[in-house]
Specification:
By secondary structure, the protein is of the alpha+beta class. The chain has 16 helices and 16 strands. A hairpin with a 5-residue loop joins strand 9 and strand 10. Helix 2 crosses helix 5, helix 5 runs antiparallel to helix 7 and helix 5 packs across helix 9. The longest helix has 29 residues. The termini are far apart. The N terminus is likely disordered.
Length: 478
């Protein structure tokens, strides 16, 4: 009895310990502390492509607000004035369709490039990638290479460490604030913003967005880094839906590389029973998200190809053929024919080209004047003292151009109707709206139906602009 009780007691204790252990493992898996990643600097073809992309995109971002066009900022999103200036074009709230088309183009481009070659956007053009590369460059310049950074972080705090860390974070904060200032400069003229900043007259909203965007840049590119790509970005989660076995992805050639193992340069790996991988872990050390590409395709991979450059460099030094880690497809790795250009990609490309042509053509054909015709709804019609039937309209004319225009209003294909307006020519300033009252009169005997379609035509005085808008003329039953 005593033995049985002891066995039960031991069993209960063992179960509780196992349960407690499993709970600790689960808690560690859910709340594991982030291990800082120290990506090693890499050189090679894809590193140069990535650097070129970073320089080009950063130049566009920081210098575009300073460009001028016709004595104004070339690109300015004037939210209070409800006008978007894009070089020689001005877009109004009525042009929201173009924003929708732009978003559709961006989505289709993402589908196209992802189906073609995986996460090209993430590896080369995503703002998180671009600014993280710049922050890493600053970190290397101030703290040194990967080993020096690791050694510095492990060292106790002293004056030297404090000075180095302070210099790094000072440079990060300065770049972040300049990034926030540039961001606001797209919405408030950047030169006026600079004068307000120098005179300490920056408005509350401008101050908030400079600090907010600067803080977001500092936090995301300086501290979170790969955490944004792994945990915060939704694209990493649904990218697999856009992949197929013919999508170009960065992969490790297991057949060629295994079994991996270190060896001297003079050793023939085939005679030693080894693959080409020497297990140097360089592909892991250069990865900005800290994954091992040899474990297969992973959602954490952002497609930056740093591992390709690192592995090719090692293969070159050993005299092996490059491409142990390379851009390839699942079908190619399995020894099957690869089809990079396939119906799915061609359909995406056809839709993209068609939509792009439609958007560009629509923008090129758009007129800088919009007219809305609003019929007086207080009365269907009224009779004048001369026995004529009259309808009253309000014509709202918007001059979307960047210069003043004078307009003349006419009525098309209704010779029996008389058009009466307050003034024969209407002058509207650039970006202004004017309401014009127009009256149409007709002898009731000339009416063929109770409701007649009419069309107002608005011409600019110089003949460069012409827009038409339909309306209805309502009279008594014939």
């Amino acid at each position: 009895m005593e033995t049985e009780s002891l066995a039960k007691s031991d069993y209960g204790t063992t179960s509780q310990v196992a349960k407690h252990g499993r709970h600790e493992d689960l808690e560690q898996a859910l709340y594991e502390k982030r291990q800082k990643i120290y990506p090693r600097q890499v050189h090679g073809l894809f590193a140069r492509l990535r650097l070129s992309g970073v320089v080009a995109l950063m130049s566009i971002y920081y210098f575009t607000p300073w460009l001028m066009w016709d004595d104004r900022q070339a690109i300015l999103f004037d939210l209070p004035g409800r006008k978007f200036y894009i070089f020689g074009l001005i877009f109004w709230p009525q042009d929201l369709i173009y924003l929708s088309a732009l978003l559709i183009l961006a989505a289709l481009s993402l589908f196209f490039f992802t189906a073609l070659a995986g996460r090209l956007w993430c590896g080369y053009a995503c703002p998180q990638t671009v600014w993280t590369e710049v922050f890493l460059w600053i970190e290397r310049k101030i703290e040194g290479d990967r080993m020096r950074q690791i050694k510095l972080d492990k060292a106790p705090w002293n004056g030297r460490k404090l000075a180095i860390k302070g210099a790094k974070h000072g440079a990060w904060i300065a770049l972040s604030l300049w990034t926030g200032y540039t961001f606001v400069g797209y919405f408030t003229p950047i030169r006026d913003l600079g004068q307000s900043l120098l005179t300490l007259g920056l408005g509350p909203w401008e101050t908030f967005w400079v600090l907010f965007y600067g803080f977001a840049t500092y936090g995301n590119a300086g501290w979170l880094r790969e955490q944004v790509c792994i945990y915060m970005c939704p694209y990493a989660r649904f990218q697999s839906a856009m992949f197929d076995k013919d999508t170009l992805i960065i992969s490790y050639d297991t057949v060629r590389g295994e079994p991996r193992g270190s060896r001297k340069r003079s050793v023939d790996p085939r005679k030693a029973g080894l693959g080409d991988c020497i297990d140097c872990t360089m592909c892991v050390q250069v990865c900005p998200t800290g994954i091992d590409i040899r474990n297969g395709l992973q959602y954490q991979c952002i497609g930056c190809a740093a591992c390709v450059d690192a592995c090719d460099d090692v293969m070159d030094r050993l005299g092996y053929e490059p491409g142990l880690v390379r851009y390839t497809t699942e079908n190619a790795l399995d020894g099957k024919p690869a089809h990079t250009i396939r119906p799915r990609v061609m359909i995406y490309a056809a839709i993209l080209i068609t939509l792009l042509i439609a958007v560009v053509g629509s923008i090129a054909a758009r007129t800088p004047t919009k007219m809305d015709v609003i019929r007086d709804r207080n009365a269907l019609f009224r009779e004048t003292g001369e026995g004529l039937v009259e309808n009253v309209y309000t014509l709202r004319i918007l001059n979307k151009d960047n210069q003043m225009h004078s307009y003349v209003l006419t009525l098309e294909d209704q010779p029996e109707m008389e058009l009466l307006i307050e003034q024969p020519e209407v002058t509207i300033e650039a970006g202004a709206v004017a309401d014009v009252t127009a009256r149409l009169r007709i002898n009731p005997v000339d009416l063929k139906s109770q409701s007649t379609e009419v069309q107002f035509r608005l011409h600019s005085a110089d003949g460069s602009i012409s827009v038409a808008e339909p309306a209805r003329f309502v009279g008594p039953l014939p």
